TrEMBL record:
Protein name: Rhamnosyltransferase
CDD domains for this protein: Glyco_tranf_GTA_type
Organism: Paracoccus versutus
Alphabetical list of InterPro entries matching this protein: Put_rhamnosyl_transferase (IPR021466)
Top-rank taxon, per record: Bacteria
Length: 317
């Protein structure tokens, strides 16, 4: 009885089934490194933009994500025109330029929102995303971030041949132009680990509450959400399954103190539990505006000289 020859899994090209999955997920097919040491890592940034569901906001802590009263209350807050205008200003000034400025452009950036976002604003968001090849806008009616992203993550993992490396960022924060390149460099070092977490704790903070003048700070915050990265053990498991500060309890963890990882915004439009407890913690080092501009030079040159006045709520003082 003749046996049909079995094609080797990897010999300079990806399996056909993974190619099909890659096309379905709008990702390039898997690639084998020239040295034969395994697959090229796929890196996916994830940002929630006015997502209507449970998150780390103080108003939703410990509550069911689908409670009608909570959804109605949250929807009215999230989609008020004044708030959306300020969130778009932050996204267009900080987060979006970070995506465009990456020195390693081989990554994906998923923007997660909900269909309840008023149509004019949703179309504005689509238009902003359309011109950036790395961005995929995901509009999901699910009320848990982990559920909304489970299938996209599985598809991406199947296309890559292993769980992807995820990093998270908020729409009102910026991440270093070297962020993707740094993650990829460390991922090569941790290639033998099935899962790991990475933090870039050195960063800059700017903020204003209740119309106060904008203040500027340098901070050291290990496993802050802005830029925290992880490879999960399961292909459909999402970085938001864990509180970002708890990642070192669940994964081999590494902090990179070289360079600055983030510019974080602390203002009236953000009410995470951590921000409410300590708006500008005592360990922050305050900077004058000129010092802040100089600190931006290497990791955030695209923010130098930019008007950041949207952070201050006019007429609130």
């Amino acid at each position: 009885m003749m046996r049909r020859p079995v094609a080797p899994m990897f010999r300079g090209q990806a399996p056909r089934t993974l190619d099909r999955a890659a096309r379905a997920a709008r990702l390039p097919p898997v690639r084998v490194t020239r040295k034969g040491q395994g697959l090229q890592d796929v890196i996916v940034g994830i940002c929630r933009f006015s997502f209507l569901g449970r998150c780390d906001w103080a108003g939703t802590a410990g509550q069911g994500a689908g409670a009608p009263e909570l959804l109605a209350q949250r929807g009215a807050l999230l989609y008020s025109p004044e708030r959306l205008e300020r969130r778009f200003a932050a996204f267009e000034t900080l987060c979006l330029p970070s995506v465009k400025a990456q020195t390693d452009g081989d990554f994906r950036f998923w923007l997660l929102t909900s269909p309840e976002m008023p149509r004019p604003w949703l179309e504005r968001l689509r238009d902003l995303c359309a011109g950036v090849p790395q961005i995929r806008l995901i509009v999901s009616d699910k009320r848990e971030t982990v559920n909304a992203l489970r299938e996209p993550l599985r598809e991406a993992a199947e296309a890559a041949g292993r769980p992807v490396i995820q990093f998270r960022v908020d729409d009102d924060d910026a991440f270093s132009r070297h962020h993707v390149a740094r993650i990829r460099r460390h991922a090569r070092r941790f290639a033998d680990l099935p899962a790991f977490a990475i933090s870039y704790p050195q960063g800059l903070v700017m903020g204003s509450y209740q119309g106060e003048p904008i203040s500027y700070w340098r901070a050291h915050q290990p496993f802050l959400g802005a830029g925290a990265a992880v490879r999960m053990r399961g292909p459909g498991r999402c970085i938001y399954a864990y509180n970002h500060f708890q990642l070192p309890k669940h994964f081999p963890a590494f902090t990179d103190v070289g360079g600055l990882g983030y510019v974080q915004t602390r203002w009236d439009e953000g009410d995470s539990v951590a921000t409410i407890v300590a708006r500008f913690p005592k360990w922050f080092q305050q900077l004058d505006p000129a010092e802040f501009q100089r600190e931006l030079a290497e990791d955030f040159p695209f923010l130098q000289g930019i008007d950041l006045g949207f952070v201050e709520r006019k007429g609130a003082a």
